[in-house]
Write a structure and sequence with these properties.
The protein is of the alpha+beta class. The longest helix is centred in the middle third of the chain and has 42 residues. Among the domains are: 197 residues, no CATH class; 40 residues. The protein is built from 16 helices and 32 strands. Strand 3 and strand 4 form a beta hairpin. The strands form twelve sheets. The protein has a six-stranded mixed sheet with strand order 21-25-26-24-23-22, with helices on one face. Strands 1-11-6-9 form a four-stranded mixed sheet. It is globular and about 100 Å long. Helix 4 runs parallel beside helix 6 and helix 10 packs antiparallel against helix 14. It starts with a strand and ends in a 25-residue tail after the last helix. It is a single-pass type I membrane protein. It catalyses: L-seryl-[protein] + ATP = O-phospho-L-seryl-[protein] + ADP + H(+); L-threonyl-[protein] + ATP = O-phospho-L-threonyl-[protein] + ADP + H(+). Pfam families: PK_Tyr_Ser-Thr.
Length: 713
């Protein structure tokens, strides 16, 4: 295996005085006799390079590597930093990582204790977007307030062996925002140098303004200046008052600005005053404040007659009004015509005609499927007001909409769509629209008149399973039998998608936030934004890896081969989440327990199951039943997909465990043919579509629903 070279970029600190110091040739920056620059870098007071030139020891600048005009330096720093008393600016800096097999972490404990980072992955340079640090080839994240130090760590999943030809190294650094522009060339050979500028927030002392003003001798803000409390740590900063410019830390450093040199200030006469100015109307017969941005200087009208100038002005004004109205009407008409053509373009571009053809093949479903206009959904969401947002995800935003008749729906406004996959998208919509399963969120219709299609779903009222498991205000509502019922319904929905749908569907993002609950706590699987249809003659698909960390099938992650067993793995994580009440991935837990699936399997292998189960489940549930569900979850989490059960087998086993609760006599003879028939036969009929029993599944031939909604709302 090739050795990966991890290059952590060295840092050059850019000390920034967060105050209004105007650098002009006429105004001094430093004290008399003190250096005011080092190379091309200005050094304004209160900073200084030797005794007597700085306000206190904290502002002493000592450096052996002043930068020349080419930006060169003879000194490099290590990939860590401990600031003296000045915090690292959280508004001016970003933590950036570069690489296609890179996981970068930055952490610190002085000032604010924190740990954060980002992940950057890609399979080839074709996936990379120039200038974008969104996680493909390059990623970035913000730094918290009050940070005084940092340590940077960089990890690689495959030691860059899969991307070695175009990305042999990972890079991570802290830099001033907008000073680095990502380029694909940086993946192969980062030419940004070993130094990047970083901004520190400096402040005077550790007192706020009101406390500092009490000590006249040590107060740093000189005449004609104002004091501001530091917004990133203790201390204060100074700035020249309005109407003054210069260095507020120097005696007489803030000098008056002569506003009268600006010809756009006064109409006639301008008189400069300390810190301000005065305008006046000198010519006789004129009145006003004399300011261009005020009432200017207007001619005083003679009493008893309408001045000629006013009559001319009125005529010109009326003509202009008529002209503006005419142009506005013409512009509005052209804009409406352009808008109609644009809607027609988007409708065709988004496959509207193809969708109409597909829907026309399902005569019984046309009434239940509606193609909405853009105006209808704009009105339903109150022009997409922020207070109508139900949730936001990586693929779009979901809004609450109210249709005529007070019917509440969820409207998904996606971010992007790949035009090369429009036909596939329409085929998926057409097939998903024929699914009418009681445990799958229904699609009511769509709008194709916008640049990105809008999708309309049924509104599920009781939030996500994630909120009910992990929020304390819902802890008493989800007892064990209710959790088991949710698991049974979710498994049934996935089994239906894998086995009973006209074309098998792999969900690809099963997690607790994508399982919604209605008022009766009935589970509904949502978010088919990452789903894929499986052709009848295929058992697997090769795709770009998508999913959620903590739920992602490890075999799929390594091979990019998507199968139905990938959903089985994610469902296994969901089962463990129901059993333990823990999140699938949490950095608040010890390192060996962060990944819930791995922690669970390890605990099972060490016979420590009951140590990690939710105490509420142990108090309420049947120990034997809990153990059976745990064993089933362990089988679902097998590393090799071929060793996992199918979703049909999972659903049947959960149905059997649920039947044990309702019919205790089943426990006595689990292997009898009669028991197997009672537990298996009804479910087989449901999955294979043999019967029309409404207790199994709702008809898929009389209704149309689609489920590709982020977070399912």
């Amino acid at each position: 295996m090739a050795l990966v070279h991890l290059a952590i970029l060295q840092l050059t600190l850019l000390w920034v005085v967060e105050a209004s110091i105007v650098n002009t040739n006429a105004l001094p920056l430093a004290k008399d006799g003190c250096e005011d620059h080092c190379g091309d870098v200005n050094i304004p007071y209160p900073f200084g390079t030797r005794e007597g030139c700085y306000v206190n020891d904290s502002f002493l600048i000592t450096s052996n590597d002043c930068y020349n005009r080419t930006g060169g330096s003879a000194r490099n720093n290590q990939p860590w930093l401990r600031s003296g008393i000045f915090p690292i600016s959280n508004t001016r800096n970003k933590f950036i990582a570069i690489g296609c097999d890179t996981n970068a972490v930055i952490e610190g404990s002085r000032g604010t204790s924190y740990t954060t980072g980002c992940m950057s992955l890609c399979d080839s340079t074709r996936d990379v977007v120039e200038g974008s640090c969104s996680g493909i080839g390059c990623c970035e994240t913000a730094i918290p307030r009050g940070v005084m130090d940092f340590n940077i760590s960089v990890f690689s999943y495959y030691n860059h062996t899969r991307v070695w030809e175009f990305n042999p190294c990972s890079y991570a650094f802290v830099a001033e925002e907008d000073t680095y522009n990502f380029s694909t060339q940086d993946l192969l050979n980062f030419k940004g140098g070993h130094m990047m500028p970083m901004v520190l927030n400096c402040a005077i002392g550790d007192q706020n303004c009101s406390e500092a003003k009490k000590s006249f001798e040590s107060y740093a803000c000189m005449a004609n200046s104002e004091c501001h409390d530091s917004d990133n740590g203790p201390g204060y900063q100074c700035s020249c008052s309005k109407g003054y410019q210069g260095n507020p830390y120097l005696k007489d450093g803030c000098q008056d600005i002569d506003e009268c040199l600006n010809s756009t200030v006064c109409v006639q006469i301008c008189t400069n005053l300390p810190g301000t100015y005065n305008c006046s109307c000198q010519l006789p017969g004129y009145d006003g404040d004399g300011k261009w941005d005020g009432t200017v200087c207007k001619l005083i009208p003679s009493p008893g007659r309408f001045p000629l100038i006013n009559r001319i002005s009125l005529g010109v004004s009326v003509s202009l009004v008529v002209l503006v109205l005419g142009v506005s009407w013409l512009y509005w008409g052209l804009k409406q015509r352009k808008l109609i053509k644009l809607k027609e373009k988007f409708f065709k571009q988004n496959g509207g005609f193809l969708l109409q053809q597909q829907l026309s093949k399902h005569n019984g479903s046309i009434e239940a499927t509606q193609i909405f206009t853009a105006e209808e959904l704009k009105k339903a969401t109150n022009n997409y007001q922020e207070n109508r947002i139900l949730g936001q995800g990586g693929q779009g935003t979901v809004y609450k909409g109210i249709l005529p008749g007070n019917k509440i729906v969820a409207v998904k406004k996606s971010k992007i769509i790949d035009q090369s996959q429009v036909e596939q998208f329409i085929n998926e919509v057409s097939i998903l629209s024929q699914i009418n399963h009681r445990n799958v969120v229904k699609l009511l219709g769509c709008c194709l008149e916008t640049e990105v299609p809008l999708l309309v779903y049924e509104f599920v009222t009781n939030g996500t399973l994630f909120n009910h498991i992990h929020k304390t205000d819902h802890s008493s509502t989800l007892q064990w039998q209710l959790r088991l019922q949710i698991a049974v319904e979710t498994a049934g929905a996935l089994s239906y998608l894998h086995s009973a749908a006209s074309t098998p569907i792999i969900h690809r993002d099963i997690k607790s936030t994508n399982v919604l609950l209605d008022d009766n706590y009935k589970a509904k699987v949502s978010d088919f934004g990452a789903s894929r249809l499986v052709p009848l003659d295929h058992t697997q698909l090769t795709t770009l890896v998508q999913g959620t960390l903590g739920y992602l099938d490890l075999e799929y992650f390594h091979s990019s081969q998507l199968t139905e067993k990938s959903d089985v793995y994610s469902f296994g994580v969901l089962l463990v989440e129901l059993l333990t009440g823990m999140k699938a991935l949490s950095f608040e837990r010890p390192e060996e327990e962060r990944n819930l699936a791995m922690h669970f399997v390890s605990s099972m292998n060490e016979s420590r199951l009951f140590e990690i189960l939710d105490q509420q489940m142990l108090n309420e549930g049947n120990v034997e039943q809990l153990n059976e569900v745990a064993m089933l979850a362990k089988r679902c989490l097998k590393v090799k997909g071929e060793e996992r059960p199918t979703m049909k087998e999972v659903a049947m086993e959960l149905e059997g465990l649920k039947a044990m609760t309702k019919h205790p006599w089943v426990k006595g003879n689990m292997i009898s043919e009669e028991t197997e028939y009672l537990l298996q036969k009804p479910y087989d009929d449901c999955v294979d579509g043999v019967t029309g029993n409404s207790a199994c599944y709702d008809s898929i031939r009389k209704q149309v629903s689609i489920s590709i909604l982020d977070d399912g709302r």
